[in-house]
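About this split. The held-out portion is used to measure sequence recovery: a designer receives only the structure tokens and must propose an amino acid at every position. Recovery is the fraction of positions where the proposal matches the reference. Here is one held-out target exactly as it appears in the evaluation file.
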């Protein structure tokens, strides 16, 4: 399922982020959204107005779309918020869009996140 026209797919920055996520998954590590933005060349100043937040989300959606097309779990599951160590709301919205999550319950989201994380570790570990 493609959500928008690809913006980053096929570009070096897509490969850079994708490879970093795989590296982190293989090491069973998480990464913060800010780190993804930095890999993309976004500066802290660009965070104002949510520019890099939107661009980071766009990138992660493209990566998940690619993974979904190849029958793999959502690689962006390892990208988490600094505040609570879990993915942001966009991750769960995307999971619902892909048909992987049907509930809007916070408990179900947390259970889905943990299961998807295990699947990513299994896939890339």
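Reference sequence for scoring:
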């Amino acid at each position: 399922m493609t959500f928008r026209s690809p913006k980053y797919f096929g570009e070096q920055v897509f490969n850079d982020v994708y490879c970093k996520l795989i590296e982190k998954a293989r090491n069973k590590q998480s990464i913060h959204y800010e780190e993804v933005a930095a890999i993309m060349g976004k500066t802290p100043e660009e965070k104002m107005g949510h520019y890099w937040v939107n661009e980071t989300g766009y990138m992660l959606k493209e990566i998940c779309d690619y993974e979904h097309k190849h029958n793999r779990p959502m690689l962006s599951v390892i990208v988490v918020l600094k505040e609570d160590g879990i993915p942001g709301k966009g991750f769960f919205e995307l999971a619902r869009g892909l048909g992987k999550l049907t509930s809007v319950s916070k408990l179900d989201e947390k259970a889905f996140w943990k299961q998807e994380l295990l699947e990513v570790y299994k896939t890339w570990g």
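Annotator remark: The CA atoms of residues 111 and 117 lie 10 Å apart.
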